[in-house]
From TrEMBL:
This is Glutaredoxin. Belongs to the glutaredoxin family. Keywords: Cytoplasm, Disulfide bond, Electron transport, Redox-active center, Transport. Gene3D superfamilies: Glutaredoxin. It comes from the Bacteria. InterPro entries: GLR_AS (IPR011767), Glutaredoxin (IPR002109), Glutaredoxin_subgr (IPR014025), GRX_bact (IPR011900), Thioredoxin-like_sf (IPR036249).
Length: 85
């Protein structure tokens, strides 16, 4: 089953690169919105992320995960796999 994964990024952002590398390493495909290229999506991201304004903001199957550190913490705790189909 495929996953609905969305990540809001900026091109220069090392946390974004790290987060995408983890998803890539798991073969997880995602929709990426670069808010540097599309600044009009920034407000949408902040609203969906309950006020968080840093990038990346990551959403997995309708759930707000948070940023790169949050996703890495879930991975370290062995909890990321259960969020993915
Ligand atoms: N702990 C956060 C750090 C994210 C972070 O600091 N992102 C920077 C860009 S690398 C940011 O969004 N800065 C504010 C901004 O660009 O508006 C995470 O792991 O995602």
């Amino acid at each position: 089953m495929s996953n609905d994964v969305t990540i809001y990024t900026k091109d220069y952002c090392p946390f974004c690169h790290r987060a995408k590398a983890l998803l890539d390493s798991k073969g997880v495909t995602y929709t990426e919105y670069d808010i540097g290229v599309k600044p009009e999506l920034r407000e949408e991201m902040i609203e969906k992320a309950n006020g968080s304004h840093t990038v990346p903001q990551i959403f997995i199957n309708g759930q707000h995960i948070g940023g790169c550190d949050d996703m890495m913490a879930l991975e370290a705790q062995g909890k990321l796999a259960s969020l993915l189909n």
